[in-house]
Amino acid sequence: MTVAASCSTQQVQTWFAARGTPVSTAKASQIAQYLAIWDAQNRALLQYLAAVQAAQAPNESNWDRVAACESGGNWSINTGNGYYGGLQFSLGTWRAYGGTGYPHQNSKAAQIRVAERVRTQSGLHHWPVCGRRF
Predict the structure, then answer these.
(1) What is the DSSP annotation of 53-121?
(2) What is the dihedral of CA 17, 21, 27, 28, to 10 degrees?
(3) Kindly report the CA angle at 40 between 35 and 46, in degrees rounded to 5?
(4) Most distant CA pair in the chain: distance in Å?
(5) Structure confidence at residue 56 (pLDDT)
(6) pLDDT per residue as tens digits for the range 12-21
(7) Sign of the torsion angle spanned by Cα atoms 51, 49, 134, 71
(8) Distance (Å, whole) CA 114 – CA 56
(9) What angle do CA 58, 62, 64 make, to 5 degrees?
């Protein structure tokens, strides 16, 4: 995507000529301008998407604080109380938000992904005490 920004009229003409389709200087100039605009728009879009992704990325340290409160930070805990994993999911909540298997048998990253779905769709009320540490 970044090559287009430095694309000159001559480069456009050379590119087309090499493929057996010569273009006029005016047409090559127009194509070079379109490529520069396309490149600028794509750069802006990529910056925007990177910012959105960063804003939506789960804050691992927040979930670490919740897990420290819920389970002592043990992401593979199963005490037999009906709640599992570092964030002490009930099996119903875990599965309702896309978790598979048992929470404590999944990675920390998988537990955080499900927790983010829960938080996005329902808020932090599933962690009435420890959710305040988020």
Answers:
(1) HHHHS--HHHHHHHHHHHHTT-TT-B-SSSEETTTTEEHHHHHHTT--S-GGGS-HHHHHHHHHHHHHH
(2) -30
(3) 120
(4) 77
(5) 65
(6) 999 999 999 9
(7) negative
(8) 14
(9) 105
Q: Token match 């930070």: residue?
A: 73
Lookup result for tokens 């919740």? 66
- pLDDT value, residue 1: 37
Helices 108-122, 60-71: crossing angle, 10 deg rounding? 100
CA 92 to chain centroid? 26
Rounded distance between C-alpha atoms, residue 39 and residue 33, angstroms: 10
Length of the chain: 134
Rounded to two decimals, the pTM is: 0.59
